[in-house]
Prior knowledge:
heterodimer; A: mainly alpha; B: MetI-like fold; 10 helices; transmembrane helix (chain A)
Amino acid sequence: MSTTRRFDPILLLAAPAVAYLTVVYGLPLLFLLGRSLLGTGGFSAFAGFFADPFSWIVLGNTVRSAALVTLVCLVIGYPTALVLARAGGFVQAAILVAIILPLSVGVVVKAFAWQIVLRRDGVVSQIFTGLGIWDEPQRLLFTETGLVIGAANIFVPFMILPIYSVLKLVDPRLGEAAATLGASPVYRFFKVAIPLSLPGIITGIAFVFSMAASMYVIPSLVIGDRFQTLATLTGRSFLFMRNEQLGSTTAVVLLALTIGIVVASSRLSRRLGGAA
Amino acid sequence: MTAIEKIAGWLAGLLATFTVVFLLTPLVVTVAVSFGSSAVFTLPPSSWSLRWYEALARSRDLWPPVFASVKLAAFSTAVALVLGTLCAIGLLRGQFRGREAVVTFLVSPLMLPGLVIGIAMLESFRAAGLRDVWVSLVLAHVVITLPYVVRTVFASLSLFDFTLIDAARTLGLTYPKAVFKVLVPSLAPAFLTSGMFAFLASMDNYPISIFFTDAWTKTLPIQMLQYVEESPDPTIAAISTLLILLSIGVLVLGDRLVGLRRMADL
């Protein structure tokens, strides 16, 4: 690679967007980080935050609920992406409609719909007691299980689509070739199918985990104030409690967590050579 | 096919069916509630009525946010399509070190917490003396819509064979005409898909908008959350049902134009 390469003028086409995002989005985030780390009481604010046991509960809530949401999305999203990539006609259209159509209903309305479904007299409770799985009606609303169900419902398209976009480019003959060479189905799944779709899986996990760690509207409606995450605490500090000191500390911790995920996932998928 | 493969295929089909039902559940609930006659949300409704649609037609709080959100989403999506397409072409054609890092930066607003982005923007806009609600909202929403366009158009362009433009020029087209006749049609699905995702993301944004709206200018999600928290009644289910109908229209149109398959290239 030569160091004295001539500047390619076509790069100028990228300049407006890059400049725009740098000024309106990148620099403000840097200022927020800088001010909260270097500003008055910056460092002691973080020391105070991490010394408080409540902070660790909040941190635990954030990471655990996001991890559970990601796990649920992966378990139901991967098979769905697989069926979507292999199927044609009606099945494919049904899955695509089910992915795209819910995007037209806002997060507020979906969370509101889950409030109705997860109540003690809601549909889930009726089905489970009807099937005899539960002895008596239970409410899932205002529980962490309810939160995970509602959040997984909203984020699962962001797991399915990246995996689908990789799987549809995979040559199905690769699996047949492995079978011809004597590989067992289980071996083929773990040594052929999974590695080939890994870039999509990584992108999907990074998308869903970072979105779930940052969600604000869903927890406020589905689980309420008892369950605080970094995002709900940040939102409440700024919007209701007017405690901007606490808010900017939790904002920076949340920002660090999600930036870590973005950087790690993009490095990982680059190492795998995937364009997803 | 061995037995284990059959079971695996059957299991995948079962999980996919579950996912489809799961994804459509909140939509079915919303539509059912909107046609119920009761203000407490019983499922299935004890009797059916159109009273929430009448309430919606009379509502004075819901329509201004609807129009504000549509206007904001349309404008910020249009800006993002122009800036994002130029950017994707520039980045793809100009080889340089660190390109991946730039693309990651451009797509990162999708993955970083909206509340934190909103707080950071609010502080910087204030420091810069910007207090106009509408200008702030547009500036913020272009940040939300741009990543969708960059990501999808970039992916679509990397599959495009640029020698086709040279071929068209050899065949006698001028450069702008060659771009218009060859490049633009092959990018059309990417424009439609990314435009749709960007528009919906802007329409649905709560965590960034909340810092820039005031009592006079509210976007739809902000008005809706206030509604749900203060006086929940099925009027918002009625407006959501209308939005679902509108999206079905867009999906049918998109299917005719580019095919449903290509609309999922997020």
